[in-house]
Design brief:
Four copies of one chain form a homotetramer. Chain A is an alpha/beta fold and 358 residues long. In chain A, 29% of the residues lie in helices and 21% in strands. Chain A has two domains: 166 residues, NAD(P)-binding Rossmann-like Domain (Rossmann fold, 3-Layer(aba) Sandwich), CATH 3.40.50.720; 180 residues, Dihydrodipicolinate Reductase, domain 2 (2-Layer Sandwich). The first copy, chain A, contains eleven helices and 14 strands. In chain A, helix 1 crosses helix 11 and helix 6 runs parallel beside helix 8. The radius of gyration of chain A is 20 Å and the shape is globular. Chains A and D meet through helix 7 of A and helix 7 of D.
Chain lengths: 358, 358, 358, 358
């Protein structure tokens, strides 16, 4: 068993780490650390809101027993030598200084944006750009670190990049328009979205989100050259909104392809890709990497987000686009806290371990 | 005062007619008619759900006194000779047979889709394509009717066509991608959307909606020739979704223009258009035809839908598009039951009356 | 395996029957029947709303494979001789005529109210009033039937009667005030509660609900005498409301006891009762019949309703009452479609079978 | 015009003060003060959430122009000599030290709980216990202050006390059981209730709320003796819950009376009381102080909360209780931020001014 620490364990993403590592066959979570405010408390006590008394635990299953009474460390007290791997669920500012201090010694898998746009840092989605993991070795050399920082993309990027990949491979993609309807849990839980702001409402803006998706999609789908990633030359334009849905980002996507496309062929391509995806034997991999609905009323976040425990990207409404000469449009659903975040990070850890990089 | 009848007075749109005609300076609603099920009942009694006992009245203000005890007629008993104008809020199948039977005698302003796609029928948005009203005269001649059928567009088309108009006029538009986040009231109230279907959810499909918006936008923005409308040659692609919002359709729009554009100039163009819109002196016209927010978190449906009593199209997030060489993107909000439906129909009636066509 | 038919299989309760009987160790669902409207269709096709196209399936898990393509019979075509037991999820009017026609031949377990208040009909909650099952034999003789009608209580009664039982047994109960906050699924799904009626709202009235709870609670907790149930002489007063919650009825309960009580002792009594409940070895029985939270923010419907797959009554906020000389107050949560309805009916069938009454 | 300052102007209650004092005929809001965090900012800028950028303004109408650019003072910089009256919307801890420092010089009307339970402090609801205002003079003498602290009750107490008053006056009241379904805005807005905590949920606990309602109701309905209030000897027991409703507290009330009662007579009594209520000529007083619905589906918070701009207590479901020998039960709705808070405070100020106490 590899020893694991999670930094930022009490927030929405941290909670998913706690769930994803519960009874994991390869990884054992042995230390959790947080900001000074929570340090020294038992995990369940730190989850409780001091004003309302509500347990801020956001998961249909209860807090796993193994973690309930684990005392939270201060991040600066975590000794990297005791671990094989660190997962971080920090905000970007904290990640900026904390992640390198650990990467000096051991691999750090990060859900934060802090290092995603560095030249020698790949943005990794297991099954999509596994070959970019090689950039981690270059990073280690560049920085003279024993470890590395391996970030996941923003949770809104994940489903988009996953669904574009089989289309690019077969038909080529020129441009993409995407409008997201993002879930509340994507905003975290401290405090996250206020009920009065979102009830009976849509917020048409999420700070910095669109820029992240636009840049990350190109980098993920880009080519590794000797010392960095050459971004894919697709053009991407996004509008990102918040809707009153607890979990699961829905995205409306319009894609211009290089070659002529047909919805049935794209469906076939997606399912083929899903069937042969590289990571299918890893413990956290879903039975279906991509699932395509013919029912036009799907995907729906409440109905489809928990399929294969949130690790499947669900596609529906595949149809010919009416603007592009060559193009299709579709709707996708991706679980922002599972495949799009903590559980996707665990899958990445499994991939890296299978490549002997952990 | 012109005498008015409303056909289909108990549904969501019918209720807005009842509100919009309350104390109207030019129009007096003197008869309401509905399906056989409601006929013979007082208006308030017909609004009450027989199972739950709930009054299905969907408006912050109470049922106006003038209408509470008005007895609902059977549609086939309505005598057109007693009226100057008929408003209809029928479903499309009923409209198909009922509307012509009245148009033989008097003008019919319709919120139904039944005749929108006929050659000699314009789709009218007051302030956008007033010149298309001339087609009503051709229609009268063609059919040898004393009246005509004048339909409004689908409620999702309204805000899109209104915001495209000033851009087309100045910069030309080549293509449009639109994703809508549509309100519950757009699905009507009998029964409309079931709570269990939409709570914590998004439904990514509204039957026939996308086709309507795609066709209607082109027709509304088209050119009147001698006997029909030549559709505008812009290309339009839509994905229409339902979200848990009571009123107000939010739309994410990406526009490719012919000429180079700039968000500030587009804003100026929109505000200019708004300031000089043809219908601004009519009783139901809003103070602002289009309103443009600089605050990136706007428009929000709950916050902005009631501005100028739901007659204003609210735009926000105007910014340069990142795919099109010449293009912008924005978010719009349009009140689907007010400007997008009954109240827009009353505004159209005012326009037609001011043109002596009623 | 006993052969089972479900009458009324497409509604909310019918769907829970379908789930509860999936891979059941003793029962095999071999026929489903519904109103003429659905008859002749495959089960999944009958679930689809004809207007919106949405699959009206209300369960986090998918429609089980065994039932997807089963063709729905007309109720009048169901041959009782082919079954050991009938479950009904009919509305009360239909139940009135249909249930006796089957009870003539075989046992009928009903979720409808039609016969609950007959002298020779018990209202059964497995684990609470198992001895009332004897009244079914009297019923059979009275009616000269081979079967019987065994109804469950209204879903709002279930949790109340379950939590009162241990208090009555130990301290005696004089009077009860209960206010319910009932879930949407309790109103069924055809059409059930309209989204526009309940969003950002509470409906303070559910037709006939309060009378049902008041009468049923006394009957369930009453004494079987030779030919009927002598109702318990507790007094009960209820106010029943609908809230925007999908599943799980929350109830605020104030109880006046005969003897002095103490919250800690009541908790102990409840847990003791739970531990020793009669039905704990049956296949559908939960691990905890009653669960008592010390955390004052519990029970919460979204968090606690699925505990033990909805078969546990969850209690919290147990504290001394401030009005009654002897009294306590608490909040309870009961899953209205599981323990309170279809799944509770399956548990009842198991109890009856274990008593050789099926 | 009397000069007014509001302390704590940016929160939910503070915002209602800003609205209630907009164009007030007697009062002019000339200074707003807040915590150090907001001080020095313009009002609209202080309302904006620093993370999401959302304007935390919770009112269908826009921020009034008169206040938009008003710069927020530090509370300690507010000079009481410049004002005739201070309104406070502080949390209880801050109120504890800040309110006396102002009451030394001028009247302070408070929505905080800090001083409500002091002997020489009345808890005032205009129209219910106007005679308790005399205690303010005693308070001034006791403390040797030029002003006084006059607190309103907790927002959940207001509707309960208002509806009990006419029943007490006519029939006497022995005991009351109340379960509240409280709105989100009652929890304030910094941060208030988190969307993920309350969506599809009920929280059955609000810290300290029940104790407040139980004590305050008795004090408000008590008798003034020479130096304090002798609490009414009614017994009160409450359970307070949070529901996913934006505004408007719904309360389910069971009342045991001394004399026999009848729902029709209670209705008459309430309407009579409403008609003759002392404060009806004051500027902020509603047309109906109490409104009683015969429609059993009312009151509903979304439908009824804005009646008379939130100043009316709306009653429905008046019916005979089934437990008490003499008793009734009903449901009430009270706008927690208007009559139950800031706007009720303005009404109180009007009452005190009309009594020459300001």
């Amino acid at each position: 068993m590899q020893k694991i620490a999670v930094l930022g364990a009490t927030g929405a993403v941290g909670q998913e780490f706690v769930m994803s590592l519960n009874k994991h066959p390869w990884f054992e979570l042995t230390e959790i650390a947080s900001s000074a405010r929570s340090a020294g408390k038992k995990y369940v006590d730190a989850l409780r809101d001091p004003v309302s008394g509500i347990l801020r635990w956001h998961n249909p299953e209860s807090v796993p027993e193994y973690i309930q009474d684990m005392v939270i460390s201060k991040i600066e007290d975590v000794n990297p030598d005791k671990f094989d791997l660190i997962f971080t669920a920090l905000n970007s500012d904290d990640a900026q200084t904390i992640e390198p201090s650990f990467a000096r010694s051991i691999p750090v898998i990060s859900t934060a944006a802090a290092f995603r746009y560095e030249n020698d840092v790949p943005i990794l989605i297991p099954g999509i750009n596994d070959e970019h993991t090689e950039l981690l070795d270059i990073q280690k050399k560049n920085k003279d670190w024993a470890g590395y920082i391996a970030p996941l993309p923003n949770c809104t990027t994940t489903g988009l990049a996953i669904t574009l990949k089989p289309i690019i491979d077969k038909y080529g993609v020129k441009s993409v328009f995407m409008t997201s309807l993002q879930a509340l849990s994507g905003a975290g839980r401290s405090p996250g979205v206020i009920a009065l702001d979102i009830m009976d409402n849509v917020i048409p803006y999420i700070p910095k989100e669109e820029e992240k998706v636009q840049i990350e999609t190109k980098k993920i789908l880009g080519k590794l050259n000797q010392r960095s990633i050459l971004p894919n030359n697709i053009k991407v334009s996004c509008t990102c909104m918040r809707v009153p849905v607890s979990d699961g980002h829905t995205e409306s996507v319009f894609v211009e392809t290089k070659d002529p496309v047909d919805p049935d062929l794209v469906k076939k391509e997606m399912l083929n890709f899903s069937k042969n995806v590289s990571i299918k034997e890893l413990p956290t991999a879903p039975e279906d990497y991509i699932l395509v609905h013919d029912d036009p009323t799907r995907p729906q976040p409440r109905v489809d987000r928990e399929i294969n425990d949130g690790m499947t990207t669900v596609v529906g409404r595949l149809r010919k686009d009416t603007v592009f000469e060559n193009g299709i449009k579709y709707v996708l659903l991706s679980h922002n806290e599972k495949m799009g975040s903590a559980k996707g990070a665990v899958l990445l850890a499994e991939l890296l371990k299978s490549k002997k990089m952990i």
